[in-house]
User: Fold these one by one.
Assistant:
Number 1:
Amino acid sequence: MVLRLASSFASLPQSRQCLNPRLERKGLRRFKRGYVERPQILSSTEDAAVGLRVFVVSDLHTDYSENMNWVNSLSTVNHKHNVLLVAGDVAETYKNFVTTMSLLKDRFEHVLYVPGNHDLWCRRESENYVDSIEKLGKLLEACKGLGVRTDPVIIEGLGIIPLFSWYHESFDQEEDITGFSIPSLEMACKDYHDAIEDIKETCDQIITFSHFVPRQELCPEKRMLFYPNLPKIIGSDSLEARLRSIHGAHGNPSACHVFGHTHFCWDAILDGIRYVQAPLAYPRERKRRMNGGENWLPFCVYSNGGFAERLSPCYWSDYYSVNPREPHNTELAPWVARFYRHRTELT
Ligand SMILES: [Fe+2]
């Protein structure tokens, strides 16, 4: 596996099209200052009865044939007027990535995407790429060719902002459970400053989305996890700071952030921002989880001018809505303790 990321990625060309006079004036000012970056305003053929509908899904992992079949089985009719946000980890091979995004674009009017770690891994086709940066360029090119957006847009007044992100070990601030080797990676972030500023000024409702996790409270405590060091490879404080700079430090009722990566369904409001994860995840995970997802994904997070009722059930965010976190408690949960006792007995 070759995985090397820099602090910024190559920018995609930004659209010049703008239908809002306010933005036109701002754009003109920026053009004079040498900027041309602005959010594109996309039209929607939304169903008048329900208005704009935005669906979300993450962690499609279509290298598993079951998952590719699931994507293939999505209606080619029902979503023709809908938007889909794909919060990363589509597939590890370029071929499966392109097939998946092409299937989704056939089904949804607008598809937006942020890269996940699996998308950038080169381990299955290392002969094709020097490193993950080169692969990222290829994936973004493919998205552009398919009409999949990776830049901030405004659709029917709703601002949608993809946040490219990576994780960093410093994200993990809870007590360590020792005894495991820790992978680490450089953090990388990429976004579109001026386009985001335009959306902040123009839109009352904004959805941001990233593959990685912006807050540690959006993952179960490590004593609950079969891999307790997971928090070290899932998120970044910089990502939380970035989305707060968009939604406001204290959030607001029209602020929503969609994420992925950990494969745990999540729907919780923390400090005024609603955080949602709706992963397809691996086939084996769907089988053992209470709300597998095949029958209800993608999750409609926005409809008819407002955000949807919360995703339910969400085992872990439901758990933390009534149970406080105990970050200093390192006593393994019974199922984790059983797992490691069994491992110890085997060795
Ligand atoms: Fe991931």
Number 2:
Amino acid sequence: MCFFVKPYFLTLVLVSTYIEDTGPSKASNTKRERDIVPVFAGPIPNVTVPLGREANIPCVVNELGSYRAAWIRVETKAILTIHQHVITRNYRISLSHSDNRNFILHVKDVKESDRGGYMCQLNTVPMMSQIGYLDVLVPPDIIVDQSTSDVVTREGTNVTLSCTAKGYPEPNITWRREDDEPIPLILGIGKKLMNSSYEGEDLNISRVTRVHMGAYLCIASNGVPPSVSRRVLLHVQFPPVLWVPNQLVGAHAGEEIALDCHSEAYPVSINFWKKREGEMILSNEKFDVSSKEKSYKVHMRLLIRKLQAEDFGTYSCFAKNSLGSTEGTIRLYEIPTSTSFSRDTAEKFKHMNRDFPKHQSLGSSKSSRKFNIEKGLPSVEATTRNSSETRRVINVLLLFCIMSLCTHAITLKNFGE
Ligand SMILES: *[C@@H]1O[C@H](CO)[C@@H](O)[C@H](O)[C@H]1NC(C)=O
Ligand SMILES: *[C@@H]1O[C@H](CO)[C@@H](O)[C@H](O)[C@H]1NC(C)=O
Ligand SMILES: *[C@@H]1O[C@H](CO)[C@@H](O)[C@H](O)[C@H]1NC(C)=O
Ligand SMILES: *[C@@H]1O[C@H](CO)[C@@H](O)[C@H](O)[C@H]1NC(C)=O
Ligand SMILES: *[C@@H]1O[C@H](CO)[C@@H](O)[C@H](O)[C@H]1NC(C)=O
Ligand SMILES: *[C@@H]1O[C@H](CO)[C@@H](O)[C@H](O)[C@H]1NC(C)=O
């Protein structure tokens, strides 16, 4: 209601009243009233509120009588209220009073500038006062200009990811990986640490490797919700490497076979397959070229359908990026099947035995007993008699021969006795 009155006038009147009140006498005061000394009911509490909320600071006075209570800002000495009236022109400040005893100062939509001391003063002689402090909490906020953006670096370099945040109280910074994997850190000389989180503004990674690659989160928190985070991507570049789990793969004609290569590279490599010096293999009726990617790792697979004689041979997988290229080879050899175990295959065997003279001929009398082969080279009849056994032994032999391991150690004797 006082807002409708001319404010200057009101202020002047109130202030003069207040000043008058601090004087030694007031006409209306009886002697009895003057003898009563007001007392604060208790200390003014310290109030803590988050930014934007309302702060309520109570001043409770017993036996106020005809004295007046005023709220004054300690830092600026500005008079905020006197008795029942709001003096300040700060529209966010209001007062509720009751029973000539409770004077509650309300500060709505608090700002950081409201942080400080609030004095409740009584115009007694000498003047009586108490101070309560308003603390304004500010949720954390990451200062983008002072924080690292995405990083691209080479393996072996030292990297620092920085994150700075403001807020009140001072926020703490925690770094962690988005996938929650531990971060391998080298702290000082020889001190290694595997931790899923790191406390501090600067996350120093010395001699960065591909395992450090990924998304990092810098989380700023100071107990005032909400916490905030910033996502930083760390890209670690390195030339491609290849790993071939099976360099020698055997298969039967007519079958379908998959050849596998695993590559690692960043930037992401171009991956492809070739047969000997041929052209790049593309998916078609014969081949299916596929790959599964997981960050910097790629699992390459070449599927070859309905194997024919010309499909056997050497295949190569390639991985290339801007930093280099590499190649892996796989030899695909034919495992004779019972049905294809014909005179042709037998001829192959004869050949092989000539190529490796130390190796006893399959047709030797000793081996024939074991193989259930009566005479000469294995025949279709022989294989049908106990095809599984024969096939198994022949496959083993074939494998050894192709691997060029057919030396003294491996002879049919070993199998025969
Ligand atoms: C308020 O905080 C001040 C220091 O900031 C302290 O001296 C005073 O005792 C506190 N008041 C209460 C009621 O806790
Ligand atoms: C390691 O992680 C734990 C829990 O994640 C954390 O409390 C601790 O501060 C971390 N250590 C360092 C050195 O950051
Ligand atoms: C991190 O590296 C910076 C320089 O890049 C250095 O100033 C800082 O002291 C290092 N911090 C730690 C914890 O090793
Ligand atoms: C990277 O840090 C390691 C130790 O943390 C130090 O020995 C090496 O000299 C640093 N390398 C560069 C290029 O700063
Ligand atoms: C920051 O971290 C320190 C040490 O871990 C802790 O004592 C303090 O309470 C934290 N501050 C906040 C605002 O969370
Ligand atoms: C073939 O050989 C396997 C393994 O040695 C044996 O279990 C099986 O009984 C044999 N079959 C015939 C028909 O001789």
